[in-house]
Amino acid sequence: MTVPSGSGLLAEAPAGRHFAQFHRHSTTLVESAFDFLETGLRRGQSVLVIVERDHLDQLLDRLTASKLHSKALTNSGQLGLMDAGKMVEEFLADGLPEWSRFRASLGPVLMRIQPYGSGTRVYSDIAGLLWRSGKTEAAIRIEELWNKLAESYQFALYCGFLMDTHCEDAYDAPLEELGRTHSDILATSEDEQFGAALDRASKEIFGISLTQMAGVTRQDGARRFPSGQRTMLWVTRNLPLSMGQLAEKARQYFQNDGAVRPQP
After folding, report:
1. Measured distance CA(171)–CA(159) in Å, rounded
2. In CATH, what number does 7-187 get?
3. How is the chain split into domains, by residue range?
4. For 34-64, what is each residue's pLDDT tens digit?
5. 179, 146 in Cβ contact below 8 A?
6. DSSP string, 149-214
7. pLDDT tens digit string along 117-135?
8. pTM of the model
9. What is the pLDDT of residue 215?
């Protein structure tokens, strides 16, 4: 089930849930990750953060500004920090993640931090890093390995992706396969706005609302996605020659309606 705003799962983060969110801008991605992490830390939960160095610095700055001191939290064992770039180098074999390396890298860390909290949250940028590098098969495999690891450890996992889902090029990649590896794909406020823009564009071009049509699709992979992304996936599959026209018209409506556009 998809939570429309994404705020419910980010706050509650039930153990066993594995959710992803696609952001067009790094600023909104960092803010969502911060909300997820801060809530967990203030509730006394253990938190593991696996991101690239620049995003890690931004998250630590936000924690400090909120009077959550990362050094004290890491010293106590409540907070674990890992470099996503180094992790990728450790457990890739012949271009794909290898289960034994993955488990050996993450299992001991989860065992170390779990006794210190009343639950465990993990924020990971590993799959997002691989996806941005064009290694989509490896990214999907990583998400499958996370699901396998969850059979032995209790945690809630939030995976962040930088991806322009308003652009038709994003749908050339196997997004539905990525969707199948997650329990939930969380929407953002931009997703809702773009979904409305797609409705206007589809009514102008086709005379009907494709968001509504796509919402009843039987494709399990697509059903996990927010309405705008689900519509784009539906058009990619069923009306590929119209994809460029629809996306361009929807982007015009989105921009003209005064949507907030954070700086990259």
Report:
1. 19
2. 3.40.50.300
3. 7-187, 189-257
4. 999 999 999 999 999 999 988 899 999 999 9
5. no
6. HTTTS--EEEEEEE--TTSGGGGGS-HHHHHHT-SEEE--HHHHHHHHHHHHHHHHHHSS-HHHHH
7. 789 999 999 999 999 999 9
8. 0.89
9. 59
